[in-house]
Amino acid sequence: MSNPERTLYKNCISQFIIRIDIDPVANVDFIGLFETLKPYYNRTAIEVATNYNLNLQSGETETRKYNKYHLYTNDGIHVEIDSLLKVIIFNASKYVNNDVYKDRMSTIISFLIVNNSLQSRRIGMRYINMFYCPSQSDISKILPDTEARYIKSSLRNPDISRSLAILEHNKESHYIRVQYGIPNRFYPSKITRMDLMIDIDVYSESPINVNEWNETIDSFNHISYDTFVSFVKPSFLDSLR
């Protein structure tokens, strides 16, 4: 259950992503998973994709057909299952609290947990926040002073087409990557609109057993929130509640 005190009802999250990369040698019944999930989605599709691989010994290109499974809801949720890369991607176009993913990810994991030796090689959670700033001065209303000064100083160059800073943190059990600044939706044209992005990516590249996936995702959610709080001013954070 989500915590109302940590819920930002007026957030500007334009994209929320959970990605699970499964151990490439694992045996996974992706067709069974797709069939299990179908009743919970409004639309589904199977995409037949082609993988091209160059055989270095023969010099010939080998091709292989494989399936990508897509599931959609009417409120902006898209789940993609890649049977070749063994990747599951949950994508939502809006986010208020963990209700958006909790039941759907639990259904996926409940199906996969039958194979209790299954492991991930990477799990990640990503929040992309986009805030429209009518002017450069509005950047200072959102970002802390040091971060705001860095972005605003770069915008003094009239020819700049993108202004982004990247910070990466290496924790014991996970990594945190934060990108903030003006990505410029019209890149490579010059910046004419101040869309401020705060992009938070929390992930682990260590093997994690399927039994721990739900706990890992919940942990990453808390870490993402705490990271976001550290990148905005308290007054602006209050305006999002």
Structure description:
The protein has 241 residues and is of the alpha+beta class. It has a domain at 4-19 and 120-239: TBP-like (2-Layer Sandwich), CATH 3.30.2030. It has helices spanning 30-37, 102-112, 139-142, 145-154, 213-230, 234-239, and strands at 13-22, 43-54, 61-72, 77-82, 87-92, 119-133, 163-170, 175-182, 194-204, 208-209. Strands 1, 2, 3, 4, 5, 6, 7, 8, 9 and 10 form a ten-stranded antiparallel sheet that branches. The protein is globular. The two termini are 17 Å apart. The relative contact order is 0.17. The model has no long low-confidence stretch (mean pLDDT 94).
Through-space gap between termini? 17 Å
- Give the helix/strand class: alpha+beta
Which architecture of the domain at 4-19 and 120-239 would the CATH scheme give at its second level?
2-Layer Sandwich
Shape: globular
| Mean pLDDT metric | 94
The major sheet is characterized as: 10 strands, antiparallel
What is the string of helix and strand elements? EHEEEEHEHHEEEEHH
Radius of gyration: 20 Å
Strand content: 35-45%
Q: State the helicity in percent bands.
A: 10-25%
Unreliable parts: none
CATH T-level topology of the domain at 4-19 and 120-239? TBP-like
Strand tally is 10
Please write the CATH class name of the domain at 4-19 and 120-239: Alpha Beta
